[in-house]
């Protein structure tokens, strides 16, 4: 069965403005390019087309979600504030999360694109799929945007699908290098959605993503954080998957697996300090596909999050798409031999210790 692909040109028109990485220019900060600009996603989409893979996938259309859909997760006050600023000249969703005119509409389209892929997988129209959306979503909380995210694309999509397709057990596996605090918050008291986040310990947000955050009330035990030390590479991530992520999925037995997919854990990323390469993303995708085949008819959905190396994100993305679709293109990752041979790609003892602690905290 086919693999779905969602992209819309307007995703690239979301404007984050002028910045030096993420700080606004000033008399002491020279103007430059915002880290979350369109180029990483544009180049991912372009490499997909050049490789010939896009035409082998099933195109999934983007339909914007409504305010009522957003309100399944976000507060009405927050939605109204973003909508009003977007209708004017834009603004900031809280702190260091700038957006321009029209970004409200584009963010609704991004959540909608994620939802359409999810709904298409649930209906059986496609086997699995990827939404290459922008702005990203996994840091957005109910009443504020943060970390370049306006609305929680994945939570909104899951909650809308639940309302329209019935109660489903879901697991999210967030491999973005930053903690998926927004997705965690959305389902913190909900035992039907297992939220898992692997991230660089203490990177962003600085004060979340700890082992102590396990969920609350009926959701206690249904949130798993796997904070890994800076410098973790292929070996550490594969071990974390083998020892924590995959066993947790088998325990939860989801009907659907959703991946907030950031490629900022790569060895080339300017905002993260991890060591991953396209082979790691390919391998993690294969492991999730095997689990999804066993547990939930292969139902696996990914929604794009961070990743700030314009040169490298496309090769990580292509590897994931080749794995999801089972189509190997003629394009090889030119960086792979370089990054694979960096010292420290194999699992180190202090990384194993961190994985052991996460496994124990998860009760596995
Ligand atoms: Zn990130």
Verbal overview:
There is one protein chain. The chain has 364 residues and is an alpha/beta fold. It has a single domain, classed as 3-Layer(aba) Sandwich (Arginase, Chain A), CATH 3.40.800. The chain has 11 helices and 10 strands. The strands form 2 sheets. Strands 2-1-5-10-9-6-7-8 form an 8-stranded parallel beta sheet, sandwiched between helices. Strands 3-4 form a two-stranded antiparallel sheet. Strand 1, helix 1 and strand 2 form a beta-alpha-beta unit. Helix 7 runs parallel beside helix 11 and helix 8 runs parallel beside helix 9. The site of zinc ion (ZN) has 7 residues, from loops.
Instruction: Compute the number of strand runs.
Output: 10
CATH H-level superfamily title: Histone deacetylase domain
Q: Quote the distance from N terminus to C terminus.
A: 34 Å
Helix content: 25-40%
Ions and ligands? zinc ion
Could you tell me the CATH topology label: Arginase, Chain A
Side by side, the strands of the main sheet go 2-1-5-10-9-6-7-8
Strand content: 5-15%
Class based on secondary structure composition and strand pairing: alpha/beta
How would you summarize this macromolecular structure in one to three sentences?
With about 375 residues, the protein is an alpha/beta fold.
């Amino acid at each position: 069965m086919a693999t779905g692909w969602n992209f819309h040109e307007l995703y690239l028109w979301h404007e984050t403005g002028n910045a030096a990485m993420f700080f606004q220019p000033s008399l002491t900060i020279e103007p430059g390019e915002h880290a979350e600009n369109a180029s990483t996603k544009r180049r991912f989409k372009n490499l997909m087309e050049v490789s010939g893979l896009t035409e082998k996938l099933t195109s999934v259309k983007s339909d914007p979600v409504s305010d009522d859909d957003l309100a399944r997760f976000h507060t009405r006050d927050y939605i109204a504030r973003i909508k009003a600023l977007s209708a004017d000249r834009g603004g900031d969703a809280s702190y260091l999360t700038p957006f321009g005119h029209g970004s409200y509409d584009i963010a609704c389209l991004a959540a909608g694109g994620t939802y359409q892929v999810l709904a298409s997988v649930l209906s059986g129209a496609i086997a699995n799929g990827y939404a290459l959306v922008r702005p990203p979503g996994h840091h957005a909380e109910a009443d504020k945007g943060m970390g370049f995210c306006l609305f929680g694309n994945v939570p909104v999509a899951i909650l809308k699908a639940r309302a329209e397709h019935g109660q489903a057990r879901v697991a999210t596996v967030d491999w973005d290098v930053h903690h998926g605090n927004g997705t965690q918050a959305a389902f913190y008291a909900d035992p039907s959605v297992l939220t898992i986040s692997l991230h660089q310990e203490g990177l962003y947000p600085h004060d979340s993503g700890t082992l102590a955050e396990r969920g609350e009330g009926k959701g206690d035990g249904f949130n798993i954080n796997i904070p890994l030390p800076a410098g973790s590479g292929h070996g550490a991530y594969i071990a974390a998957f083998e020892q924590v992520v995959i066993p947790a999925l088998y325990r939860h037995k989801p009907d659907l697996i959703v991946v907030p997919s950031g490629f900022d854990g790569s060895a080339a990323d300017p905002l993260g300090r991890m060591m991953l390469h396209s082979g790691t993303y390919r391998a993690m995708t294969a492991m999730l596909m095997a689990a999804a085949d066993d547990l939930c008819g292969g139902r696996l959905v990914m929604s794009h999050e961070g990743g700030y190396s314009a040169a490298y994100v496309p090769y990580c993305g292509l590897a994931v798409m080749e794995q999801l679709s089972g189509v190997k293109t003629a394009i090889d990752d030119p960086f792979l031999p370089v990054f694979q041979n960096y010292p420290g790609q194999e699992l180190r003892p202090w990384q194993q210790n961190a994985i052991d602690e996460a496994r124990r905290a998860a009760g596995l």
